[in-house]
Design brief:
2 domains, membrane, Sulfotransferase, P-loop_NTPase, binds 2-acetamido-2-deoxy-beta-D-glucopyranose, 347 residues, transmembrane, Nod_factor_sulfotransferase
Length: 347
């Protein structure tokens, strides 16, 4: 996967290149900065006042008003200061931490997306922790697991421990998330967890990837091991040699089912603070940078250039990836799903 496309001046936030007069823009930015400054001061004063008068809310942040500069009033429920049981956060104990969960489906680019996030020095995304059945067998074990992750007591290759500024994991819709949606949404809302939805628009490509991946679980193409994600072009080429046959009879109902699941998930978590990302926008050169900046702003971490070494497995035109392409084409032509044929991309 190509890395290197976003340019950051070290330590500064990205400002879009001026299209109009740079002077006017600079004045606007200056005025904006001044207004923000005054606003933040006002909020600080406000908080100190409420703190001394009434203890309205019991968020830990209130105990340290205006501690980390730039925390806005609406952010307060989403900003945390965990105290891990197993170690000390040391010099970063005063840095605020945001909680997140990537809600996605298999073969939607979430593994790749997670490696991008984890390339940020202050982000720990701990993988698919609910792929282990015991952890999702009932609500109390789900809550116990979540508590451990958000208390920064979860250890995985991705955890950065003391200087983590955003901690989370990825959660597939079929891993207890839909089943226990009510309790999980309550947990997210009361603990101030933000959701990152990651979906794929082209559900036909996703289906091919699901079928191929499930074939490889048995075939173990690469050196007798099953790989869901690869890091070299050779491996990708080897894996993409397998072409699945798509069941044309169940194709439309299957696509509909995925659409319905997506809509339901959005409905269940609509009052949770969230952002919706599409895989297609993350791999498109013309939208990728902006989306990665958006997600870092959403997590309130200092924006950085994010990188991944993963290589895409299936690329190029769809007709070369399926055995019974003619059947598939016949089935979908004239339906709304026809657009899946065209939205091609090259990487
Ligand atoms: C929940 O699941 C865990 C692990 O499977 C089990 O040990 C525990 O007894 C269960 N708790 C309840 C209340 O069912
Ligand atoms: C990010 O991590 C670095 C190095 O571990 C640390 O110095 C910095 O304070 C962290 N930033 C935030 C916003 O937590
Ligand atoms: C296959 O596995 C063997 C033993 O684990 C290793 O020595 C070899 O390099 C591997 N080959 C490839 C192509 O990964
Ligand atoms: C295709 O799907 C239909 C409907 O779900 C099912 O009855 C049929 O057995 C499937 N065919 C194959 C080859 O799996
Ligand atoms: C996207 O950007 C990468 C790196 O800059 C480049 O190698 C690749 O050709 C670009 N792809 C397209 C479709 O423009
Ligand atoms: C990439 O994004 C641009 C801008 O949104 C869009 O016009 C273009 O069609 C996209 N390319 C692909 C291959 O989806």
């Amino acid at each position: 996967m190509a890395n290197d496309l976003c340019f950051f001046n070290k330590g500064t936030f990205i400002i879009k290149p001026p299209k109009k007069s740079p002077l006017v823009l600079r004045m606007i930015v200056l005025a904006f900065a001044m207004i923000c400054g005054v606003y933040i001061c006002l909020i600080c004063l406000n908080q100190i006042n409420t703190h001394t008068k009434t203890r309205l809310v019991n968020f830990p942040v209130i105990e340290r008003p205006c501690h980390a500069s730039g925390i806005k009033k609406w952010e307060i429920p989403y900003v945390h200061y965990p105290k891990p049981k197993t170690y000390s956060r040391a010099e970063c104990a005063d840095n605020p931490v945001k909680f997140f969960a990537i809600l996605s489906m298999q073969r939607s680019g979430s593994g790749w997306f997670e490696t991008l996030l984890n390339s940020h020095i202050n982000v720990s995304s701990n993988g698919e922790i609910f792929s282990v059945k015991d952890r999702r067998s009932n609500v109390s074990s789900i809550v116990k697991t979540l508590d451990k992750v958000y208390n920064l007591d979860w250890f995985s290759s991705a955890s950065k421990n003391e200087c983590t500024a955003a901690v989370g994991f990825k959660w597939m819709l079929n891993q207890g998330l839909m089943q226990h949606h009510k309790e999980i949404a309550d947990y997210f809302n009361s603990r101030g967890v933000s959701a990152i939805f990651l979906f794929r628009r082209n559900l036909l490509r996703r289906m091919i990837s699901v079928l191929a991946n499930s074939y490889d679980q048995h075939a173990k193409t690469l050196n007798r091991t099953h790989k869901s994600h690869v890091h070299s072009l050779e491996e990708a080429e080897e894996l993409s040699k397998y072409k699945p046959t798509i069941n044309a009879t169940s194709l439309i109902p299957d696509l509909k089912l995925v659409e319905e699941r997506t809509a339901k998930a959005l409905e269940y978590f609509k009052i949770t603070r969230h952002i919706i990302l599409y895989y297609e926008d993350l791999i498109n050169n013309s939208t990728k940078c902006q989306k990665l900046i958006d997600v870092q702003e959403f997590l309130r971490v200092p924006p950085r250039d994010l990188k991944s070494n993963q290589v895409k497995i299936h690329k190029g035109s769809l007709e070369k990836q399926v055995v019974n392409w003619n059947d598939v084409q016949k089935t979908l032509t004239g339906t709304p799903y026809e657009s899946f044929f065209h939205s091609d991309y090259q990487i």
